[in-house]
């Protein structure tokens, strides 16, 4: 049982929920940028939530199926087609051997997630099938997919029914102006009170440098730093620090100009200060932001961040209850 990549689109890779436990060795967790969409796609086709599927950015792939199966696409609004006929997204669809899965033009969002019954059955690397291309680790030969690649599929229940769909109210997508909630961090005191206020007041725009490592933002006011004597081991730029660990979602602002949010494939440490971090409940949303998307950073407390995490878990449980 397998599928053939006729056209990989812009960038399509094998992803699951990542490989936690190796960040201290410099190997990021990786996995799907939008985990809720990936989990939903897997649940629609009867897979475990952690099964490997495909993540495609901006342009969808063209895939020929070499066996009968069930498939679902979630995430960005990119209409799915089987043999050229438009089908509903966020829905389990039957597909026959010889048929071709493809996608129409992107309407909103940035990344789609394609789950196939049985999952993509490539070998695990450090406990995960997710692709980490910088390290040539995992996925299919440690890289994004190419034309002609043949991907094996896992076994699945042949009596699996298609037609299952996820209600729109359970699909989480960014607002017209994306809102990302932020918990300020250890280095917040390094910028002036005026800059602290302006960072959250300003409207920022997603820059073109937006990928699995991180998202850069532009258009806001340059940060002003509190005067200091640079500590031993830090650089002369006021945004430099003695090297520190970088949590997921960390917001760096090199030279105080353009914030960078570190994402799934980001490095584990370095010498730029961090004003804070995007809360875990909003990390999925970042993966669906297109360049030039207007974005507002929202300051929250730890209690608000924990409540948001609980809300997200309730949403996920509602999805499970609907689809299992």
Low-confidence stretches: none
Main structural class: alpha+beta
Order of helices and strands: EEHEEEEEEEEEEHEEEEEEEHEH
N-C termini distance: 24 Å
Helix content: 10-25%
The largest sheet is: 7 strands, mixed, barrel
Mean pLDDT: 94
The strand count comes to 20
Q: Determine the strand fraction and express it as a percent band.
A: 25-35%
Q: Compute the number of structural domains.
A: 2
* Rg calc: 21 Å
Number of helices: 4
- Spatial order of strands in the largest sheet: 12-19-16-17-14-13-20
General description of the model:
The mean pLDDT is 94. Strand 13 (204-210) and strand 14 (214-218) form a beta hairpin. This protein has helices at residues 35-44, 193-201, 283-286, 302-323; strands spanning 2-7, 11-15, 53-57, 62-65, 69-77, 80-82, 85-87, 93-95, 100-103, 108-116, 150-152, 178-184, 204-210, 214-218, 240-245, 250-252, 260-262, 269-272, 274-278, 294-299. The radius of gyration is 21 Å and the shape is elongated. The longest helix has 22 residues, at 302-323. The chain has 324 residues and is an alpha+beta fold. The chain folds into two domains: 2-170, no CATH class; 178-315, Cyclophilin-like (Cyclophilin). Strands 12-19-16-17-14-13-20 form a seven-stranded mixed barrel. The chain has a six-stranded antiparallel sheet with strand order 7-6-9-4-1-11, with no helix packed on it. 43% of the residues are buried. The protein is built from four helices and 20 strands. Helix 1 runs parallel beside helix 4 (302-323).
